[in-house]
Each structure stands twice: as C-alpha cells, then as structure tokens.
Amino acid sequence: MAKNLAPQLETVFSARGITKVYHMGEVDVHALRGVDLDLYSGEFVVLLGPSGSGKSTLLNILGGLDSPSEGTITYRDKKLTSFDDAELTSYRRDHVGFVFQFYNLIPSLTARENVALITEISRNPMDPVEALKMVNLHERIDHFPAQMSGGEQQRVAIARAVAKRPAVLLCDEPTGALDVETGILVLDAIQRINEDLGTTTAVITHNAVIADMADRVIHLSGGHITGIEQNSTKKAAHELTW
Ligand SMILES: Nc1ncnc2c1ncn2[C@@H]1O[C@H](COP(=O)(O)OP(=O)(O)OP(=O)(O)O)[C@@H](O)[C@H]1O
Which residues form the ABC transporter domain (predicted)? Predict the structure, then answer.
C-alpha cells in the first residue's frame, strides 16, 4: 500500500521557482526552468525523465552539491539557499546520503572500512557492520571492492550512505550500471532503508518500471516538472521486472 501522503505529513523540502543556468562560454544551458516541489517526510519518490531533463541538477541542488541560479529551497525550517559553504558542508554531512551510478568505493579498503570512513566523521552513526547487515552484506564485510560484484559494491555504497542515519537519501541512477537481478537487490536495499529508517528517499532513473515502487512519481522534461503522480499501490522491489 502507498503511504498516506496527507497534507499533515511533515514537509522536508520545499523548492520554489528553482532555475539553474550553466554558462558554457557563449552558451547558456537552462537545466531547470522554474521548478516548484515539496517532498514529505519518509516518502519514496522516483524522478523520471529523458536525458538532459534536469533530474541530476535538481537532486544535486536538493543535496547541497550545487546551488540554484534563482529560487528558494527550505529544508525543514531552514533556508538551504541561504547557507554558506560551511553550512552546506554540515548539511550534507549530517542530513544527506548520496548514492551514484558508480559506487566510488576506495579499492584498498574493505567493505567495513569503506563504511567506517563515513561513520568516523558522523554524529550518530550505526556500526558499519549494522549498516552492511541492512543491505544483506554482512558476510562480505572483510572483502575488498575487487572481490565483489557490481551489485554488491553498490550495496556497500548504500550502506556507506545510510550508516550516518541521514534524514534524506538521494540516489542518481543507482541501478544504471547493473543487470536486472542485481538491480532488484539494490532497489530492495533502498526500499528497506526507506521503510525501516523512515529516510526520505529520491531515486533518479530512466527505467519507468522502477516508478512502481514509489509513493510519488515526478516527471521532468526540458527543465520543468511536467507531472506528479501518486501511486495508489506500490510494488516491492522483488515484484519488478524489466
Ligand atoms: N556542470 C554542468 N555544466 C554545464 N552543463 C551542465 C552541467 N550539468 C548539467 N548540465 C546540463 O544541464 C542539462 C540538464 O542536465 P542533468 O544532468 O540535470 O539532466 P538529467 O535529466 O539528469 O540527464 P541524464 O539522465 O542524462 O543524467 C543538460 O543539458 C546538461 O548538459
């Protein structure tokens, strides 16, 4: 069943009039052209849209990796768009977990050590082994990235992202480099974390099938939000196929 996204749910992000223009020499690239979006506590949203529609730009701005050209974003009661660099660094470190298409693990560190890199600088972290258990990798804790499959490495990256108990998990094409079976294991880990920790989760994908897992599906095209659907029922990751 989809979560009840009644208006009384806490608003985690409130973005208004977000534009982003990249200046490339003589050319201006309009990545976002006036985006208004609210994201609610604990929800699972999927961002769908063609290449170049602005999905990554929006996610990077929400995660404090980039800033908009115009517009405002509030995160809970704080105005993210007024943060200075130090405040953005603290925001990212304390509140946001990131998962990217490529896992960015340190090859010379084991799974446990890759996760510990983050828990050592976090305020209220899980034990790295606990985080690796959440993604079903507890038998691989002492393995190096080269000894793991792509899906296993991505699950280490997810464990690393969630070990600091972030309020928000932002995933940019987390299954883009994986086959179906492995991709489903990765999505299952993301879904379990959303449900067990109540982490507000946004997943970018080109794969429309993954939208069936979401509470809400946000469609982007040409730097605009062109539609938002709420799923009345949502599927478990293991029910998906593509
Ligand atoms: N750092 C940058 N410098 C210049 N242009 C950029 C930059 N990042 C993104 N763009 C441009 O902004 C537009 C939106 O890009 P964005 O990566 O947000 O789209 P996307 O929907 O995530 O695409 P994809 O699905 O291919 O990842 C594109 O035209 C892209 O080329």
Answer: 13-240
